[in-house]
Task: structure prediction
Amino acid sequence: MNAEADYRLPRTVIPSRYELRMEPDLGSAGFAGTQVVDVEVVETTSEIVLNALDLIVAIAEMVDGAGEVHRATSIEYDSEKERVILGFSASLTPGRWQLRTTFTGTLNDKLCGFYRSTYKDEDGNQQIIATTQFEATDARRAFPCWDEPDLKATFRVTLVIDEDLVAVSNAAEISAKPVGDGKVAHEFAETMKMSTYLVAFVVGDFEITGPVDVNGIPLRVLHTPGKGHLAEFALEAGAFALRFLADYYDIPYPGDKLDMIGVPDFAWGAMENLGAVTYRESALLVDRKRSTQNELARVADVIAHELAHMWFGDLVTMKWWNGIWLNEAFATFMELKCVDAFRPDWKRWLTFAHFRASSMDVDGLSATRPVEFPVASPAEANAMFDTLTYGKGSAVLRMLEQYLGERAFRDGIRRYLKQHSYSNTETDDLWAALEAESGEPVGDIMSGWIYQGGYPQLDVTRTADGFRLEQRHFRFLGEGEATWQVPILYRIGTEEGRLIVAHEPVELKGSDGLLLNRGGDGFYRIDYPQETLADLADEFARLEPAERYTLIADTWANVLAGATSTAAFFRLVEALGEELEPDVWAVAIGGLAELDRVVATDDRPELQARVRALVSRRAAELGWDPAEGESDLTRRLRGLLLRTLGNLGDDVGTQITARQVFGQMLEDPDSVDADVSEAAIGIVAANGDESEFDRFLRLRESADSPQDEVRYLRAAAAVPEETTARRLVGMILAGEVRSQDANWLLARLLGHRKTGPIVWQLVKDNWDAILDSMPPQNRRRMLDLIMYRSEPEIAADIEGWLAEHPIGGAEKYTEQQMERLRVRVGLREREGGRLRESLADPT
Ligand code: BES
Ligand code: ZN
Result:
């Protein structure tokens, strides 16, 4: 184990302003830089230690207040700690100095630091882009710096590039001067005081949309040539978000302009560089008429998330990476708030229930971790960006917001941001601000949710005149002993209230109509007595959609944990007949799909029949064509139910129609609704063979939006043929799939019901090359669906292999995925053979 102190720079010399001149050479994939950093020497020293990685520093000198130059006599690298140590023959005395360096580096292909991204232009020629991704700790790959979030400084950037290219950085351009040789020096204004991980340089043959003025801030989208028609939605969502957020925070946008840039190769979804937000293309550029509700909402979500960071993260930043949850959880929370205001008809908070549920799936493991967790090395910082940080973090903030009230919560956020602008914080600073505005002991309530892993389940029992609530640590396997202060909203009869359940049981008076977790925002589960659950199922339609969701999700989780019978789950699912919300359907279908993964082959037709019985009436009502004036969510529901009927329900009629609709869509894409075409493609793929596979690959080549590209690649991975699965793995190894997509593609292949086992074998046979096909920081995600490999021998083989061949930096992640796998192996053992009885059991 490493200690944080091993990775923290000495504080003897502190930077306040960087002047950076960077000259990338796209053709030779190199760059040269010079920088002048205003520093304060705090303690007399003869060396300066700062971060640098894969850089060569040619010259380093310190200039004192009188202009005298002291050249470094030694330049040494500590590659393990990612540092450069500059030695001086005389000591540097306290006061103001300038550090001047000249250095070179390479534009790498690892999608981090200063890196190269490529695309084919309209003539089929390869074009090169130079772009950056510095979070968490890769600014040090681009220029020597004090690469820690609390060493904030201002940045004045100049990018020297070919005259026919475009360059952007964090702040507005203030001049562009030819410097000879066909080069132009683009100089950008000085940024606000901010962390190094937020600096960005982007250079390429981009097209730029005309700016939209948002409260005086010019908002633009940059994209590779020919994609202008895909930028309109991003501008609309971005303009809305900028206004909404400035209003919510009650602070103007902290930058001087805002560019949103679609980058063809991008490891993550997007990155909140102040004023120069970078995106994976599919998270920014979208054809609004031909995309599904989900795809459109994804773009709106990502934009809102990154813009939320401009204040929460960029203006106010965590002190160190242990606090990254605050950044990411809050931006996720805010993303939901913003998009919920942008499109109330999308009911984003209901969809958020899936994210909460998936983080509860991880947090119910013994291999979970606290949301806030000590971090020392860069690899540990990287490992923090997971579903606990994002999903659990945002869900517990939402739970707190609903408990405190939206207004008090917002006022607390405003106070926090104003108090700490241009500075750094720890978690307690947020609790203090929320306490000041709400008068509640926020820190006491929240610490259990943040500093310990897991969550409770409330056991509800009847008493003579009411109910008794007692918490118990929920675990899928084994037992836990933690307790929480559980903020509970409830309804009893027609009365609504809130209370905290702590260590001691709590009694609630009232005879019937009990509903706990009112509104469905709690990060806990409820275990009701049989009769209460039956009552709730009877009045299912009168519950809020999110309450219906949690009822199903909790019941399913208990099936997974072996605490509830599948028969009970089926009974609840039966109550869905009248359901109109796609998200509520989706949680039930998710459980059915998991059962379908473990059911004995002989019993599968029976499960399929049950699925058909459940969905077909509503699916028939919706048909294949949207009605005039239909809501987006109804369109999503249609897509979901058709796909469920065609695949999980194995409905032959639906499969035949899907093929026709697919054909029609290829003839005339605008003649088929996007959610319907997505469903049709999914059904054709799941029942397709190599000829369909070839067609998907061709369609991917000619796709005219990033969403279409993703959709066809996903379809290709769904084809249930060994040969096609092999071919896809071959394409990954041959670099015919962008490295940014390799992890999710492999995850899908490994999770595939039929071809997963053979892909697992291929992955083992080509282990090193497979790892090399992905950016290091994304590798772990190829295990995302490995839990579906619950065939006992394969599961054991997977565990054994990963124990022998650990994925670097993914130790915790792997441990969690292996425990999730074990949970599914258990499900298969228990339920696989007796599902037929459960299906038949009418009680
Ligand atoms: N700050 C992150 C990007 C990031 C992730 C940087 C991991 C370094 C390591 C950004 O704000 C983010 O959270 N992006 C998400 C998308 C978002 C909508 C949840 C992502 O990239 O998945
Ligand atoms: Zn984020």
About this structure: The pocket of BES (ligand 1) is lined by residues 135-136, 268-272, 301-302, 305-306, 309, 328, 331-332, 385, 390 (CB under 6 Å). The first strand starts at residue 13 and ends at 25. The CA atoms of residues 201 and 719 lie 40 Å apart. The mean pLDDT is 96.
